[in-house]
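Private note to self, pasted from the team thread so I don't lose it. Backbone tokens:
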């Protein structure tokens, strides 16, 4: 729908507020000598209109549950967000604006999520992530509204607004996420496209000439087109109102001009990623009637007008509190569930729900994971699951789970389709919505497609749960394209990401218990396709020790060798230990499902597991060696992969690549013999 008007109805005060936003952003970038001034100057009118007339929020309580969500997916324009937050009364001072992009400031180069609440709903910067997060938030709103709302008492009823740029729509993740959003009919999602037609390289005509309107209409979106120069706010408001009255998600295509008002840099790439320069800012301020000798100037009438957001937000939240109080009287159990979900508290005893697996049986850890989900998920209604077109392979759909679809928003299982990258970012949006949490599955090798979303989750401490199956050359016949080799090392390298590779079914259950109780960041569960023996816990209880990252599975006094392994290779180490015992060689077997958790333990505990006096150490893992030297020391030996895999049955791959108990025994005997010779010298 094309929306326009010739009469731009805006008061002088509105214009003054818009100019103040523009110049706060431009001055912040100039002082930092770093940043992106053009986008905030172009989007100031739309942002002002949205924040003052449509966005329901409370600056005094950024975590109010029924607030509208605003996501600046075009995160390079962060100076716009900080100007809005300061003027509206969030905990962003003028000094914070002046401290833009500096050490330990509240105003980093791109918006960063703070679990305690800051006004930045998610971390944006990598383009398209915020847009996909918004899709996740829209899913979460639909689900929780359906779950909680009763008797005309809408305790969940909000919109998700996001501002995107050309870069967001060029990135492939936007195609994945928006395609799914259209399929799901997420009419609570409103995307404002800053159509300024400029990227770092220059005019978008260089590389981006697709018909955005037709593209989004083909996704089954409502599209509103606002022509002009980005200042027609009557037309923009009409588009917003239309967006609120449709059964589809909406894209508002708003034509703007980067660095609007700049005599020399408007509509140029020079305004995208560099300061405008003091002389240029003076010219723009003079053009708009601002004092060119003043920086970070906020006229008192602007401050008074914008600060009304505090009162307005407080009143909106107070009204919601009244509704919730009435709701709690009529639906006390649901109100209790709401409050528990809001606190992040698990309302059930996970231990009592977890299945137990008998020693001697063989169970793939992906299957064990599915059995855990069958047992616990019916009792955890605020956790939404899903898979990227691999549901039956990942075992991620628990018994009784309903599908989340346009007409069944009460469903807890999301079919993401072949959209791994969007799945990761959508999960992140679900997991930071305030009440819900997400897990989603795919093959481990496709963590490559999800890595940007996983990294942002770790950086921002989103509690997303990434379920990866088919974790090694054990995948077999699919061959090297589907056999992860370097992926464990790659994920272990990400700070704040807990990687858990359980050795058997019982460790898998314990891994899920840890994961469901862990709220300080994302967790990646790495699971097998092939069946593994359920190990006998001869020395210590797995469930009590997996949260320590590593533990002694088989203990021997004064051992000759330490066999350290993860996942499917732990059973190989156990078999090797038994073979060595027949030759009077004593080995300890250490299961090490999580390096990161082990790193967090005391030196005393670490030494009780990796005995410092035992110099002969062997690590067995069907991945590359990178990182293992820390645990092996100088003289340790790694048995694993040094190449890509091959297309053959999984057991053949293990044999041909030398990842076997026989090879482990051979290596152990060789290095023990060498160690004895060295001692004799």
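Design output:
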């Amino acid at each position: 729908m094309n929306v326009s008007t010739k009469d731009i109805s805006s008061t002088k005060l509105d214009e003054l507020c818009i100019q103040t936003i523009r110049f706060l952003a431009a001055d912040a970038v100039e002082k930092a000598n770093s940043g992106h001034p053009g986008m905030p100057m172009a989007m100031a009118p739309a942002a002002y209109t949205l924040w003052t007339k449509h966005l329901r929020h409370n600056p005094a309580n950024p975590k109010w549950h029924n607030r509208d969500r605003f996501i600046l997916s075009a995160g390079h324009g962060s100076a716009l967000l900080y100007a809005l937050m300061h003027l509206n009364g969030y905990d962003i001072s003028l000094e914070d604006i002046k401290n833009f992009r500096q050490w330990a400031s509240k105003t980093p180069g791109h918006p960063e999520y703070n679990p305690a609440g800051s006004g930045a709903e998610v971390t944006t910067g990598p383009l398209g992530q915020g847009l996909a997060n918004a899709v996740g938030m829209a899913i979460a709103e639909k689900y929780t509204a359906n779950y909680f709302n009763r008797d005309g008492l809408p305790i969940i009823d909000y919109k998700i607004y996001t501002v995107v740029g050309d870069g967001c729509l060029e990135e492939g993740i936007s195609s994945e996420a928006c395609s799914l959003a259209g399929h799901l009919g997420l009419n609570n999602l409103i995307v404002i496209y800053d159509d300024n037609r400029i990227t770092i390289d220059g005019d978008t005509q260089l590389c981006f000439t697709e018909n955005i309107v037709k593209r989004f209409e083909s996704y089954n979106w409502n599209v509103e087109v606002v022509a002009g120069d980005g200042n027609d706010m009557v037309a923009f408001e009409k588009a917003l109102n239309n967006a609120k009255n449709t059964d589809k998600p909406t894209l508002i295509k708003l034509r703007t001009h980067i660095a609007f008002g700049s005599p020399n840099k408007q509509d140029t790439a020079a305004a995208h990623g560099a300061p405008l320069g003091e002389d240029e800012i003076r010219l723009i301020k003079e053009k708009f009637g601002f004092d060119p000798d003043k920086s970070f100037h906020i006229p008192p009438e602007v401050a008074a007008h914008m600060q009304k957001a505090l009162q307005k937000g407080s009143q909106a939240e107070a009204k919601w509190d009244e509704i919730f109080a009435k709701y709690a009287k009529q639906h006390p159990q649901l109100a209790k569930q709401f409050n528990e979900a809001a606190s992040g508290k698990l309302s059930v005893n996970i231990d009592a729900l977890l299945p137990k697996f008998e020693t001697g049986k063989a169970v793939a850890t992906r299957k064990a994971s599915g059995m855990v989900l069958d047992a616990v998920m019916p009792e955890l209604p605020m956790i939404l699951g899903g898979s990227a077109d691999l549901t039956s392979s990942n075992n991620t759909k628990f018994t009784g789970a309903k599908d989340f679809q346009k007409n069944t928003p009460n469903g807890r299982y999301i079919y993401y389709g072949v959209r791994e990258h969007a799945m990761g970012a959508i999960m992140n949006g679900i997991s930071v919505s305030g009440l819900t949490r997400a897990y989603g599955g795919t093959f481990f090798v496709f963590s490559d497609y999800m890595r940007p979303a996983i990294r942002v989750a770790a950086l921002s401490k989103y509690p997303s749960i990434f379920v990866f199956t088919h974790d090694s050359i054990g995948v077999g016949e699919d061959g090297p394209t589907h056999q992860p080799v370097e992926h464990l090392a790659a994920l272990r390298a990400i700070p704040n990401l807990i990687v858990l590779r359980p050795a058997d079914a019982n460790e898998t259950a314990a891994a899920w218990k840890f994961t469901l109780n862990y709220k300080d960041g994302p967790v990646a569960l790495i699971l097998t396709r092939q069946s593994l023996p359920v190990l006998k816990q001869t020395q210590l209880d797995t469930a009590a020790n997996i949260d320590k990252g590593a533990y002694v599975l088989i203990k021997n006094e004064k051992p000759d060798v330490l066999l350290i392994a993860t996942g499917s290779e732990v059973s190989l180490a156990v078999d090797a230990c038994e073979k060595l015992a027949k030759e009077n060689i004593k080995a300890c077997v250490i299961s090490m499902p999580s390096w990161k958790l082990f790193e967090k333990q005391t030196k005393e505990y670490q030494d009780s597991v990796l005995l410092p006096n035992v110099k002969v150490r062997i690590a067995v893992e069907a991945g590359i060696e990178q990182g293992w030297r820390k645990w092996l020391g100088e003289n340790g030996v790694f048995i694993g992969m040094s190449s890509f895999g091959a297309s053959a049955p999984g057991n053949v791959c293990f044999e041909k690549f030398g990842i076997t108990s026989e090879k482990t025994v051979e290596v152990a005997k060789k290095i023990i013999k060498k160690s004895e010779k060295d001692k004799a010298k």
